[in-house]
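Reproducibility note. Readers wishing to regenerate the assembly model reported in the main text can use the exact inputs given here. Chain order matters: entities are listed in the order in which they were concatenated for prediction.
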Amino acid sequence: MEVSNNARGSFRNKMTGRISNAFAKGQTMFFRFFADTFFAKRYGHRAVVLETIAGVPGMVAGMWIHLKSLRKARTGYGPQIRELLAEAENERMHLMFFIKIAKPNVFERLLILTAQIIFWHYYLVLYVFFPKTAHRMIHYFEEEAVRSYTSYLEMIESGDIDNIPAPEMAISYYNLDSDARLSDMIVKVREDEKHHAEVNHRMSL
Ligand SMILES: [Fe+2]
Ligand SMILES: [Fe+2]
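Running the prediction on these inputs yields the following structure tokens for the assembly.
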């Protein structure tokens, strides 16, 4: 009897994991489709708008776990809260770098505002009820970000996009050489996104 209960439990866990994974992947494909349709190869603008969204999940999750720690009056949440808030801060810095490269037009500003209102609420609800699925989705988002920045780099290498000097802010943030170029900055940003992908994968387990 116990064995069959265990088997049923593990089957249920497996199914839940699969549904969660399919949902996270589906959402990622949905957002990717939007980004591809809207921005195509305008990578500077794409980075600006997507980084405004990328700064949301870490803040929502960090805030939620902070509140949970307060409610339960329990310690042990500190490292996770700090890690999530650091992710949000890092994404905000990415935005500050790319805003020097591409200025959003009026329509993009409207899109940023709308996306922030919708995505903040959407992610909060998802995080409250399905935190692991939420982290899994961000893991896939971050993997897409790595792909996008790789394509951006390829366009710079092929000469389709000018390899202009990196913004001062990025040079001091990443401790780059004073003559660093846009491509050097993107390599660093891409490393950050890889790190976010790993962190969110760990938190989704
Ligand atoms: Fe980012
Ligand atoms: Fe990221």
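We highlight two features of this model. DSSP finds seven helices and no strands in the chain. The helical segments are 2-39, 43-72, 78-98, 106-129, 131-157, 168-174, 182-203.
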